[in-house]
Design a protein that fits this description.
single chain, about 280 residues, alpha/beta, D-Maltodextrin-Binding Protein, domain 2, 2 domains, seven-stranded mixed β-sheet, Glycine betaine/proline transport system substrate-binding protein
């Protein structure tokens, strides 16, 4: 059972959670790090089975053809209340940059750079710069690296009180560990409500028929902002290994485990919940 991972900490947490539970149920899950566009192609070509990172509405627009032709199928919403848009440190917002339309006038202070994550995940920014939207013409450029690389750049800038624009999102420890401001005015690029998003779980075409029990499990597997912020903070700030964090979070939230295993069995048809309770030491 093959899961796609973009190298994002939130997907690392949700995939590790699924792996622990599915292994206890008798399956053989594994995760592979891919780019976002490669993930959709891999699902289409039956090279991947599951992807827990379908951020909507942005990806539904950028990858519309995959939904239209039935290459990918949504089996559930695993997170509500997410957001995904450009952000600046609070001291930059306090100096007057609160909207996408404020950026152009301060280009030199930003060194005409917008910091994103891995290639394939920054399309709204790429399209914005290509269209010269918000008067972002001339020398403006996108700097792509990775989640960790971008956040390291932001941390260095904040330590020196330099001005920086970057791709921000929630859930993420950045919302806990730094004072940041999400920019308004990016509805065209990221959608309304500061890129307000839900996150869905996708499977490849044919997977629900081939693996109905696992599909039921993934349709049940729902998180929330506080859960993911806490888990991701444990990983990124405290340095706890991802599988250890995933297991600790489940032990601390047994009510979620009960909901996740509703109607789910082991690979040989036994009670999934009782098996998981024994695995995690839950009562």
């Amino acid at each position: 059972m093959r899961m796609a991972d973009l190298g994002w900490t939130d997907i690392a947490l949700t995939n590790a959670t699924a792996e622990i539970l599915l292994k206890a149920l008798g399956y053989d899950p594994n995760s592979t790090i891919l780019g976002l566009n490669v993930t959709f192609e891999a699902l289409k070509n039956n090279d991947m089975d599951v992807f827990q990172g379908n951020w909507r509405p942005v990806q539904d627009i950028d990858f519309k053809s995959y939904f239209d032709d039935g290459s990918v199928i949504a089996v559930g919403t695993n997170l509500e209340g997410a957001k995904y848009t450009l952000a600046v440190p609070k001291y930059v917002a306090d100096a007057g940059v609160r909207s996408f339309d404020d950026l152009a006038a301060h280009g030199a202070k930003f060194d005409y750079k917008i910091y994103g994550i891995e290639p394939g995940s920054n399309k709204p920014i790429e399209d914005m710069l290509a269209a010269k939207a918000h008067d972002l013409s001339g020398d403006w450029e996108l700097v792509e690296s990775s989640e960790a690389g971008m956040l390291a750049q932001v941390k260095r800038a904040v330590e020196k009180k330099d001005w920086i624009i970057f791709l921000g999102w929630q859930p993420h420890p950045m919302n806990v560990n730094m004072e940041l401001t999400y920019l308004s005015g990016g509805d065209t690029e990221f959608g309304p409500d500061f890129g307000g998003a839900t996150v869905r779980t996708l499977v490849r075409n044919g997977y629900p028929e081939a693996c109905p029990n696992v599909t039921k499990f993934f349709s049940n597997l729902k998180f929330d902002i506080n859960y993911e912020n806490a888990g991701m903070n444990m990983i990124m700030t405290d340095g706890v290994e991802v599988p250890v964090t995933a297991k600790k979070m489940m032990i601390e939230h047994p009510e979620k485990v009960v909901a996740w295993l509703d109607g789910v069995t082991t690979i040989d048809g036994k009670s999934g919940l009782e098996t998981i309770k024994a695995e995690l030491g839950l009562k």
